[in-house]
Design brief:
The chain is mostly helical. Helices cover 60% and strands 0% of the residues. The chain has helices spanning 18-39, 43-63, 69-92, 99-127. Helix 1 runs antiparallel to helix 2 (43-63), helix 1 (18-39) runs antiparallel to helix 4 (99-127) and helix 3 (69-92) runs antiparallel to helix 4 (99-127). 25% of the residues are buried.
Length: 159
């Protein structure tokens, strides 16, 4: 029984942050829908866009997986667009808004910003083919410092 190792309930895929983005998107969609009456100016005009935005966020959250780079690119784009929309809305209407309206818009914008960060980290890992690969100790050490010489056929060092 010494070979038995207990596994965690959820295994994290290295360099993949789609699960984090998924949770942020679902929380942001819920926050948008639940607080819409408090931060909206003209609810009749804004509500259809907020509902559609929440549905898009939940759909993108459901499609995120570590085998599909396109879904993470779409998540990064959606998070960036959402952040720009809510931050612009918060700052343009700062003078006319109450503190509650401004604060709720800023919270949604910051959630989008965090989702954008983690989406972009995952896209970078996809581009560099690092998703699912573990880090190796010493992979960034200078070859000269570690005592390893790599000689070219002419006898000169190459790093």
């Amino acid at each position: 029984m010494t070979d038995y190792a207990r596994h965690p309930f959820v295994k994290q895929v290295s360099h993949y942050y789609g699960d984090t983005v998924r949770q942020i998107f679902i929380a942001t969609a819920a926050l948008m829908l639940l607080t819409a009456p408090f931060y909206g100016d003209t609810l009749r005009t804004e509500l259809p866009f907020e509902i559609a935005g929440a549905l898009i966020l939940v759909a993108l959250a459901a499609l995120a997986n570590p085998h599909n780079k396109t879904s993470m690119v779409a998540n990064a784009i959606a998070a960036g667009v959402g952040m720009v929309i809510f931050e612009t809305w918060a700052l343009y209407l700062y003078q006319e808004s109450s503190w509650a309206q401004f604060t709720l818009r800023e919270i949604v914008a910051v959630l989008f910003l965090v989702a954008f960060y983690f989406s972009t980290k995952t896209v970078r890992a996809f581009v560099m083919h690092q998703v699912g690969k573990e880090d190796e100790p010493g992979e960034f050490e200078n070859l000269e410092d570690s005592g390893n010489d790599i000689r070219h056929s002419t006898g000169t060092k190459q790093l």
